[in-house]
Write a structure and sequence with these properties.
It contains 12 helices and no strands. The chain has 296 residues and is mainly α. The N and C termini lie far apart (47 Å).
Length: 296
């Protein structure tokens, strides 16, 4: 939670303050912004290191070691999955710029940043419940009811925060875009399409955490990498067919929905936990049905 606070709140605030200060001192330029970013990043890194040293328990003489092979088996798929997430966030913008030009790329970049504001609450909720999922995931189906309870709580909070943010952004899109300049008004439809993906992402809850922290790391990696590849192909096809950045925004929203639904199905089949509103009803029905079958 502290890490999310530093990266999502402190870093942007410092970047803004340093950019204004350096801009007043040396004039407005890309170089000034880059130096402001470096300075803000170094300050945040220092704050994080200081917090880690204060928060971690004192060192012990525990001689327990980790098998390197076992470590790679669990972490490599997670690394691949994170690469897939990063590729999806970057590739769509690159495709827009390469196929539709710099102007559309600028609109797409601004629309993406605005839509991502709605995801901040969702990210914070996932960070809060992630440790619980990791702890309970060690017991697998034995902890099905506890995991389902954590997931349901996460979905309620995510829908509240993300839904509220999406509604606010949707109602004030024109005003928010006007802050960037008159030339960005055409990004309105891009923002609205991306917000649809954010809402559906919140409605399916912490699916990525649910799968990756409960023993299905390999599936997580394959699904995210696969969606990055397929999403890039679909974005190229959409750009060629419709010559519109909105079509690529739709591809971005659809791929987000798609990998979330994959993880909903994986968690439901493997753990009996269903990550969507009312999922506990389906979980209870399946548990009752299984109990009746075992009695027979």
């Amino acid at each position: 939670v502290l890490g999310v606070t530093y990266t999502e709140l402190v870093l942007p605030t410092l970047l803004g303050v340093l950019t204004v200060a350096l801009g007043l001192a040396f004039g407005k330029s890309i170089t000034v912004v880059l130096f402001a970013l470096i300075g803000a990043s170094l300050i945040v890194i220092g704050l994080e290191i200081r917090s880690i040293k204060r928060a971690l328990p004192p060192d012990t003489t525990d001689e327990t070691t980790t098998d390197p092979a076992a470590f790679r088996e669990g972490t490599l798929p997670l690394f691949v999955g994170q690469l897939g997430i990063a590729a999806q966030e970057v590739s769509y913008l690159l495709i827009v710029g390469a196929t539709l030009g710099a102007r559309e790329a600028g609109l797409f970049a601004v629309a993406t940043r605005i839509a991502q504001l709605a995801r901040m609450g969702n990210s914070a909720v996932e960070s809060l419940i992630g440790p619980d999922l990791g702890r309970l995931g060690k017991d697998g189906r034995k902890a099905q009811s506890e995991i389902q309870e954590v997931v349901d709580r996460g979905i309620r909070l995510s829908i509240f925060f993300t839904g509220t943010a999406c509604l606010g952004i949707a109602l004030t899109t024109d005003f928010v875009l006007s802050i960037f300049g008159d030339g960005f008004a055409d990004a309105r439809n891009l923002v609205w399409v991306m917000l649809v993906g954010m809402v559906l992402n919140a409605a399916t809850g912490p699916t990525g955490y649910l799968v990756s922290m409960t023993g299905s790391e390999l599936t997580f990696g394959y699904v995210m990498l696969g969606h990055a590849i397929v999403g890039a192909g679909l974005a190229l096809a959409a750009a060629a067919a419709f010559n519109s950045a909105t079509s690529i925004a739709a591809v971005s929203a659809l791929t987000t929905v798609s990998w979330n639904l994959w993880f909903v199905w994986v968690a439901g089949r493997r753990l009996g936990v269903w990550s969507f509103p009312g999922g506990h009803l389906l979980a209870s029905h399946q548990a009752s049905k299984q109990a009746r079958n075992s009695e027979v």
